[in-house]
Amino acid sequence: MLCGRWRRCRRPPEEPPVAAQVAAPVALPSPPTPSDGGTKRPGLRALKKMGLTEDEDVRAMLLGSRLRKIRSRTWHKERLYRLQEDGLSVWFQRRIPRAPSQHIFFVQHIEAVREGHQSEGLRRFGGAFAPARCLTIAFKGRRKNLDLAAPTAEEAQRWVRGLTKLRARLDAMSQRERLDHWIHSYLHRADSNQDSKMSFKEIKSLLRMVNVDMNDMYAYLLFKECDHSNNDRLEGAEIEEFLRRLLKRPELEEIFHQYSGEDRVLSAPELLEFLEDQGEEGATLARAQQLIQTYELNETAKQHELMTLDGFMMYLLSPEGAALDTTHTCVFQDMNQPLAHYFISSSHNTYLTDSQIGGPSSTEAYIRAFAQGCRCVELDCWEGPGGEPIIYHGHTLTSKILFRDVVQAVRDHAFTLSPYPVILSLENHCGLEQQAAMARHLRTILGDMLVTQALDSPNPEELPSPEQLKGRVLVKGKKLPAARSEDGRALSDREEEEDDDEEEEEEAETAAQRRLAKQISPELSALVVYCHATRLRTLHPAPDAPQPCQVSSLSERKAKKLIREAGNSFVRHNARQLTRVYPLGLRMNSANYSPQEMWNSGCQLVALNFQTPGYEMDLNAGRFLVNGQCGYVLKPACLRQPDSTFDPEDPGPPRTTLSIQVLTAQQLPKLNAEKPHSIVDPLVRVEIHGVPADCARQETDYVLNNGFNPHWGQTLQFQLRAPELALVRFVVEDYDATSPNDFVGQFTLPLSSLKQGYRHIHLLSKDGASLSPATLFIQIRIQHP
């Protein structure tokens, strides 16, 4: 534990005056004065802090533009779009006015800004507008793309450049800067008459906006203590003092004072002591000095190698003070092992943007999957008109897209986030002619990206590594002549993948369609090099050489059955070759299953519906959060050894104790922005997802009416038998006594990437977008016997 030792280091006699200079908290910047153009506009200070108030593109966005929103060939509606003065959001006009929160989108929720006809919507419906006038704003999560056409090419470029600058500056902001930006944006909104002065009524409005229901008497006392001019208005430095008091972190101050002693500053040796008590690897005096130079805000303190409370808070709010080990955020694992030794981020029905019954199919779904680190995507291929194969969910009302358009999306977007190989999982329902067309498109569009022959031996003893296959695309499908059934005919994908699932919707295929699917085109077969789709007949290895290039596809039901009945044999099987698991066809609304059970047995390609948010996708995002989010995570050693004795159903006795003290939360989001008096009652739940014996959840009490700075101080403890497989999920909910709790935010990460000590958890939304500056502050202890 962090102890309350007061060890002091000796300093020269002249040091105390320096300490006195820097011990006072650093003030937040003052509001703009009349010299700022002669107009007091508090909202613009946010852009000023970002260094963008003089940027021509941003200034033009502040004035607004009339852009045409394009949704179909005939739906081209002109709407006003205008950057808000906070620099964080864009207001847009609607035909029918809605609640204020429905008229804005946030810069931090933008996934990409594309120029020209670089979206499916603009390629199909934007022909009336020159590409130079068009842009697409793609969002994180399930929000649809925004396809826009500007009056001129220059105006389109201003929005592309301006949004790009704002996103880059937002990404570069420290957590403290984000907090300052956030609170001042609310301050601007609460200043109802925009006079840069705050009455008590406006202060109360501000408090409700930031999710705190403060006692009126306490709030008024705080207000009057800051009202030095005694005119019932706060302005300038008085506002900053109020905000500084509001944003105080007593729990951080207590920790800081345990190590700083009476002079209220940390020397480098004292900071080193804190780092050692935290359990920081590589904690040295040089490291402590480096942290002071990086995070200390006061130049005088920095020159004397001292850290103030503000610098200490900056450090703990930074990525280095977060729960996720920063050394794990880049590619740090061995990428030279066979593909079968990795968990590989995989998508099911990738083409869908909604349910698998009547939802739209789109190439944008592939682009979004790649943006989330997906490395194995599914192409459900059917006979199309004009000799062109199409992709859709067969025998449903889902829309159809061209196979060649999807291959083009793979070419253009597969390697923007990760350089490691992409697997195209073909579910083939086409006849020989259109299979040949598929092969032709794959070769001509992908070119050298496509793996068309083995790198070394045509019959390798193990699969190549991700490193060897960088920038390459693999095809998973049927292979001639190996994939033959007992009566000598070629197996169809559905026979390979669904030999045990009569309930699957593909059972509705007609006899003619089945005959088509049972045929295999030599041209397409030739492209299947390392991923031969094969029915899993037995888990016992054959006496002859292993077949590493064979890939089995199993429904979640069959995979669970194998895990229960032959856990260790399944683990050994997955140490040698790839296994893909997919959701049951009964999940009509594209719901997901928990991927953890499949990972426990070493299944690599655990395919999920990426378009469906929920805890299952949170787990997937947490699993692939590390190793540079490259979509490949090395499996634990017990899942890579061909003679492993590991059985997820019987992992042995507890080996690790995880203790998490939930201390406080900061700036939790307001769930209903349109109800000013609606304040959350937060509780925190910690979940362990691992082998069945390790799965557990515990939660704190709820705190009434405080989403701004709730305090718990409760400790939750877990015993773990297979810590190398465990994921830890932190969830914040709004307690409700009469109905299910409402989701507020979450963060999931592998236990092996969880750092010990006092740490911040930076919360994410349901769609995985940042909820900055919302955080949890916790203390973590991991004990091994």
TrEMBL record:
Q: A single GO BP annotation from the record?
A: labyrinthine layer blood vessel development
Cite the InterPro entries for this sequence: C2_dom (IPR000008), C2_domain_sf (IPR035892), EF-hand-dom_pair (IPR011992), EF_Hand_1_Ca_BS (IPR018247), PH-like_dom_sf (IPR011993), PH_domain (IPR001849), PI-PLC_fam (IPR001192), PLC-delta3_EF-hand (IPR039504)
Note the Pfam families from the entry.
C2, EF-hand_10, PI-PLC-X, PI-PLC-Y
Query: What are the boundaries of the region Disordered?
Result: 12-43, 456-516
Its topology with respect to the membrane?
Answer: Peripheral membrane protein
| Catalysed reaction, written as an equation | a 1,2-diacyl-sn-glycero-3-phospho-(1D-myo-inositol-4,5-bisphosphate) + H2O = 1D-myo-inositol 1,4,5-trisphosphate + a 1,2-diacyl-sn-glycerol + H(+)
* Stored SUPFAM superfamilies: C2 domain (Calcium/lipid-binding domain, CaLB), EF-hand, PH domain-like, PLC-like phosphodiesterases
Compositionally biased region (Low complexity):
17-27
Basic and acidic residues compositional bias: what residue ranges? 484-493
Cofactor(s) this protein cannot do without: Ca(2+)
Q: Where in the cell is it found?
A: Cleavage furrow; Cytoplasm; Membrane
EC assignment = 3.1.4.11
GO CC, any one term: cleavage furrow
Keywords for this protein: Calcium, Cytoplasm, Hydrolase, Lipid degradation, Lipid metabolism, Membrane, Metal-binding, Phosphoprotein, Repeat, Transducer
Bias kind Acidic residues: ranges: 494-509
Chain ranges of the C2 domain: 640-765
Protein known as: Phosphoinositide phospholipase C
Q: What species was this sequence derived from?
A: Macaca mulatta
What does the organism's lineage look like at the top?
Eukaryota, Metazoa, Chordata, Craniata, Vertebrata
